């Protein structure tokens, strides 16, 4: 087959078929567009991707194999391989055979199923090795190649290095690989190229491992020179033969020292995610605190009371008589420990990631972070936490506005530590400004300031709030948009300021309330700018979430905000609203169905109110203040999350209660195939998910021929990952208002309705 006909076959499917043919009983299945080789029940699966193909001679294919499940656990391993052939198809076949013949037997031998190997006389070596203080069985095989020289020279290099598993042994003996804490198998991949140039690569689990790669790089340089290239590749699977030893302070610090070697690059995730704060160093052990769980008390008393740990590092402190904070995760999130049962939770409401149980106890939480850091490529791995949206916001601001303009768009914000001491800029800010050449600015003591994009306040600014009275969990740190710096808040306890507020309320202020399944949020909105005035107030949704109970919460929010009687109030619901009435309800109590929300809220709040669907509110906000401002014609705003919400606005007029997420496409409900929840559930890559989004947006484009698509939801913070992959006639842009859109849109529509 020539290079021109490479589109006549499906590369990923062909690759999967080639790999499956090397294992007894294996089968190829398509899982949400991905080609997966299933080895059998309870065994790992292999997702096959042809990453790139060289279309001209010499034809080549470069493949990624993601091996997960079974004894490898959910972390799994990422394997790369390549192959060359007489054409495009031949190169894919060769790449698949290279891995399946050389390294497939390693996998099956390591998991105890050599009976499934179809390759004749596979070359697999096994030996025992100690990694740290833990003993492992190592199963390894090799794949050597050359370019421009004969294979005899490659074999000569093999012998000079020490034989069959020389690269793996060199890495293990170097002390650069720390022992893991779990009982899962661990994959270790080593590659070294030497000759006219040198190169090296080491993968531990799913991530690159720079510390060990440096060992192979030094080895390659010692054997460099001459013409052509000698390429040696090994793949090993490590099986723990004994339980992980009890943590000791010295042993843990040794592992952290290795991790620190991966964090030296200030541009790495490890740099801005906390490694620089604690230097991967353990603080001194502290005294035992009564009332703490036994495992946490032991760790703090014998290992360390602070220092290296998840997020910005271990810094335990009491929040209330029921909760302790363990570590700051950044972007308004934190890990907290529940004293009643010792469980650990991630409180990330400020980033729309909710409040979720992450570990049954303190040690399980800490060891999971440590093991994940090792297997994911150093401190780059974080347990159940996403990319820092604030950091991304800064980067995007610098790229969109230009470095020279960025200092003009920042505002000064006073920040203090929990003890009241002034503190400087957060690390994400420092790193971003350093990258783009923006000089940081600070006022004279005792006030220190931090530079932030205009209108944004960092979630960790100010003193931490106390837990809500009677709440079963600590109140989360708030992440909210605020108005640019004013002399003082328009809401005050002074009589003069109340008069000022009434004047503003009649002209350009409205109140928005966003009702959700977990919380009810409200704020005053400056209708001139679409920004919050003062603080956002959040109260947890009552259980059961009956109409009367939720209405009373809305009344409490109105009272806490000090909303005057002349201020319009808009309320969003996670449900269709037809002429003020709830048609059906999914996220609140079913007793809402058939309730006239406008009448209920007018009675309880003591003022007229206007209810609308939450997606419709977000769409109106984007048209009035955000990404669709001043765009004529038809704008379709979609929110990608658990489902797909939609709003259609034509020349500023809302077409209410559209449910474009429930369009049937290819026999499926659209949101069941293309929502963010679907991406996370199936662990889809950005590229694979973008293919589903392409099918969805192309269909909506065909039906409506809009002038603009706006994409909202939490994932819109990462729009650079998927929007450039879409090919549409209609412009498509990320939403700008993010998690403020519901409140802002509700306030905007209430003000319009009240005119």
Give an overview in words.
With 755 residues, the chain is α+β, with helices and mostly antiparallel strands. The chain contains 20 helices and 32 strands. The chain folds into 4 domains: 3-240, no CATH class; 249-386, 3-Layer(aba) Sandwich (SMI1/KNR4-like), CATH 3.40.1580; 497-626 and 736-755, Nucleotidyltransferase, domain 5; 630-735, ATPase, nucleotide binding domain (Nucleotidyltransferase, domain 5). Strands 6-7-11-8-9-10 form a 6-stranded antiparallel sheet, with helices on both faces. A 5-stranded antiparallel sheet has the order 1-2-3-4-5. Strand 14 and strand 15 (344-347) form a beta hairpin. Helix 1 (11-20) runs parallel beside helix 2 and helix 11 runs parallel beside helix 12 (427-435). The radius of gyration is 29 Å and the shape is globular. It starts with 10 loop residues before the first helix and ends with a helix. Mean pLDDT is 77; it is low at 1-7, 265-273, 378-394, 404-433 and 435-507.
């Amino acid at each position: 087959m020539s290079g021109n006909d490479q589109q006549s076959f499906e590369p990923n499917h062909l690759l999967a078929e080639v790999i499956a043919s090397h294992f007894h009983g294996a089968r190829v299945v398509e899982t949400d567009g991905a080609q997966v080789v299933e080895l059998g029940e309870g065994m790992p699966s292999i997702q096959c991707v042809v990453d790139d193909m060289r279309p001209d001679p010499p034809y080549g294919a470069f493949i990624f194999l993601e091996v997960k499940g079974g004894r490898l656990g959910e972390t799994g391993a990422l394997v790369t391989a390549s192959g060359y052939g007489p054409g495009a198809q031949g190169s894919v076949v060769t790449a698949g055979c290279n891995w399946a013949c050389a390294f497939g037997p390693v996998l099956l031998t390591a998991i105890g199923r050599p009976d499934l190997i179809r390759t004749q006389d596979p070359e697999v070596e096994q030996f025992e090795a100690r990694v740290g203080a833990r003993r492992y069985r190592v199963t390894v095989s090799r794949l050597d190649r050359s370019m421009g020289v004969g294979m005899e020279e490659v074999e000569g290099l093999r012998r000079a290095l020490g034989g069959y598993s020389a690269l793996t042994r060199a890495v293990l003996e170097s002390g650069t690989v720390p022992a893991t804490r779990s009982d899962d198998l661990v994959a270790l991949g080593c590659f070294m190229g030497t000759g006219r140039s040198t190169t090296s690569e080491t993968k531990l689990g799913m991530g690159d491992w720079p510390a060990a790669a440096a060992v192979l790089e030094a080895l390659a340089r010692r054997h460099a020179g001459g013409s052509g290239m000698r390429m040696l590749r090994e793949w090993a699977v490590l099986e723990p033969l004994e339980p992980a030893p009890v943590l000791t302070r010295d042993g843990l610090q040794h592992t952290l020292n290795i991790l620190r070697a991966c964090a030296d690059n200030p541009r790495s995730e490890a740099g801005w995610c906390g490694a620089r704060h604690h230097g991967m160093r353990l603080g001194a052990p502290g005294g035992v605190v009564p009332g703490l769980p036994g495992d946490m008390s032991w760790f703090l008393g014998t290992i360390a009371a602070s220092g290296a740990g998840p997020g910005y590092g271990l810094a335990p402190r009491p929040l209330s008589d029921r909760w302790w904070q363990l570590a700051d995760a950044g972007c308004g999130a934190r890990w907290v420990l529940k004293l009643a049962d010792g469980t650990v939770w991630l409180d990330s409401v400020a980033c729309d990631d909710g409040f979720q149980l992450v570990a049954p106890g303190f040690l399980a939480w800490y060891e999971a972070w440590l093991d994940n850091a090792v297997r994911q490529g150093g401190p780059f791995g974080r347990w159940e936490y996403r990319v820092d949206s604030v950091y991304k916001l800064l980067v995007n601001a610098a790229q969109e506005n230009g470095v020279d303009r960025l200092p003009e768009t920042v505002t000064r914000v006073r920040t203090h530590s929990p003890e009241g001491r002034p503190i400087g800029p957060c690390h994400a800010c420092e790193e971003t400004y350093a990258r783009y050449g923006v000089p940081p600015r600070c006022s004279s003591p005792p006030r220190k300031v931090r530079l932030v994009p205009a209108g944004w306040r960092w979630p960790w600014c100010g003193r931490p709030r106390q837990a809500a009275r009677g709440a079963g969990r600590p109140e989360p740190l708030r992440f909210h948009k605020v108005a640019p710096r004013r002399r003082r808040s328009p809401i005050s306890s002074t009589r003069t300021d109340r008069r000022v507020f009434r004047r503003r309320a009649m002209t350009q202020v409205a109140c928005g309330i966003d009702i959700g399944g977990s919380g009810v949020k409200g704020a005053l909105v400056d209708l001139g700018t679409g920004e919050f005035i003062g603080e956002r107030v959040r109260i947890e949704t009552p259980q059961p979430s009956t109409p009367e109970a939720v209405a009373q919460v809305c009344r409490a929010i109105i009272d806490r905000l000090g909303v005057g009687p002349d201020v319009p109030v808009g309320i969003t619901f996670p449900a269709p609203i037809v002429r003020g009435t709830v048609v059906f309800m999914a996220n609140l109590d079913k007793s809402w169905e058939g309730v006239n929300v406008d009448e209920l809220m007018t009675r309880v709040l003591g003022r007229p109110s206007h209810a609308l669907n939450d997606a419709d509110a977000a769409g109106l906000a984007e048209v009035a203040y955000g990404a669709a401002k001043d765009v004529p014609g038809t704008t379709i705003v979609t929110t990608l999350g658990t489902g797909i919400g939609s709003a259609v606005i034509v020349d500023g007029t809302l077409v209410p209660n559209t449910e474009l997420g429930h369009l049937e496409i290819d026999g499926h409900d659209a949101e069941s195939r293309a929502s963010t929840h679907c991406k996370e559930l199936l662990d889809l890559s950005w590229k694979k998910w973008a293919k589903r989004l392409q099918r969805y947006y192309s269909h909506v484009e065909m039906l409506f021929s809009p002038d603009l698509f706006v994409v909202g939801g939490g994932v819109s913070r990462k729009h650079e990952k998927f929007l450039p992959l879409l090919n549409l006639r209609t412009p498509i842009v990320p939403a700008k208002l993010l998690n403020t859109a519901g409140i802002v849109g509700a306030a905007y529509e209430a003000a319009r309705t009240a005119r």
